[in-house]
Amino acid sequence: MNTEDLKFPIPRHYTWDKTDSSKLKEFMNCPRKYFYRYILGWNPKGKNIHLEFGSAWHIAMEHLTSWF
Predict the structure, then answer these.
(1) Tell me, what's the pLDDT at 55?
(2) Burial of 6 (0-12, 13-18, 19+ CB in 10 A)
(3) Residue 42: predicted pLDDT
(4) 27 is in which domain, residue-wise?
(5) Tally of structural domains, the chain
(6) How far apart (Å, rounded) are the C-alpha atoms in residues 14 and 39?
(7) Contact of 52 with 63, CB cutoff 8 Å
(8) Cα distance between residue 49 and residue 31, in whole Å
(9) What does the pLDDT read at residue 39?
(10) Which of 23, 27, 52, 54 could bond 34 through an S-S bridge, CB–CB 3.0 to 4.6 Å?
(11) 1-30 residue pLDDT tens
């Protein structure tokens, strides 16, 4: 049976046939994250809370150390 004959619930995207090092690394780290990002095309909408916290920390430290 040919793969084009099958009816997939997810519409096929042209980028599925392209493989690069980022995709391979993502798949080796977490196959589920690879599926969500590269097959379904889901990406987080908001900012990374860890990066936001780090930025706030550095701003606070800058204000605290500027007094000395």
Answers:
(1) 95
(2) exposed
(3) 86
(4) 20-68
(5) 1
(6) 10
(7) no
(8) 23
(9) 86
(10) 27
(11) 565 666 777 777 777 888 889 899 999 999
At 42-64, the pLDDT tens digits run: 888 888 899 999 999 999 999 99
Q: Is residue 7 part of a domain?
A: no
Query: Which residue matches tokens 């040919």?
Result: 2
For the question of whether the overall pTM of this predicted structure is more than 0.70, the answer is no
Residue type present at position 55: S
Task: Answer whether residue 34 is part of any domain.
Answer: yes
Could you tell me which residues come within 8 angstroms of residue 11 by beta carbon, excluding any fewer than 6 positions away?
none
Task: Tell me whether residue 39 is in a domain.
Answer: yes
Q: What is the dihedral of CA 31, 4, 15, 46, to 10 degrees?
A: -60
